Hints:
By secondary structure, the chain is of the alpha+beta class. It contains 8 helices and 13 strands. β6 (131-134) and β7 (137-140) form a beta hairpin.
Amino acid sequence: MFHGKVSPATAKGLKALRQRIGAAQIPSSKIDETLNIATWNIRELGGKRRSDAAIHYIAEIIGQFDLVSIVELRDDLTDLGRILEILGPYWRAVYSDMIPDAGGNRERLGFVYDKRAVAFTGLAAAANPPRQRVGSEYVPEFTWWRMPYMASFASGNFDFVVITAHVRWGARAAERETELASLASWIELKRRQKSVEDKDLIVMGDFNIPSRRSSLFRTLTASRLELPRALANLEFGTDLAKGKRYDQILHYPIYPENFTNAGGVLDFYAGDHRPLFPRLSKAKFTYQVSDHLPLWLQLNTDIDGQVLDQIIRGR
């Protein structure tokens, strides 16, 4: 981390933030053995220029992980560049194009990652839904307000594809349900492709699901997607009140041993924003840091044993 010479107020805020980060008990990752991943909706990142303090706080939070899915990244990438500069020369970003309409909210989806821990392996693309021929045109079978985005990575001897999404809020929950059903169908189709880059798919992002008991969660997980065990029995919320499970990390349970028992929410808010921004209202604080908390999980990336078992079974 390269915070450099910050103001006394920012230094004090960073000290308070580090105490809150410590309370999350995020285990250190080990090169070629484990990887810490997270998904975080950073409210309108790039929509309006953030203060220097906010950029330092966001970088400090992201720096606890090795690979982070960023939701609500906006068209202006200046603040992302400021964050990467603090994170240091080993950090990289890959992101989608912005959507220039009210439905897309000029948003992008992206990933930031520490190349010392995880390597980007070439795939970075928005979702391509199946199409049907209608007259002389090929028309998508389903669409989303914001196209899901995916990228391929490798760490240790574990290769995987991460798919991230930001599902609409909409006027009614039924609108979300339709979009979630389409997303679940597309992910299952992707998994079944013969030419899929890797069958280890990790799905994360902001799905605007209020509860694991809601029909929206059942819709998203109708095709065998499920919570890793570290999150399955955890009572967490990713809003500041920690009551809503808007953000998710999901996987297909093909190799459950790829996931450790470590995971949770990093609560940088801790019920009071004033140690970070003494003079701001809570509402303004959410536009400086965020109104969502990062959801994180640790992966096992040393899978030599699994590879050997596959060779044995192949015989």
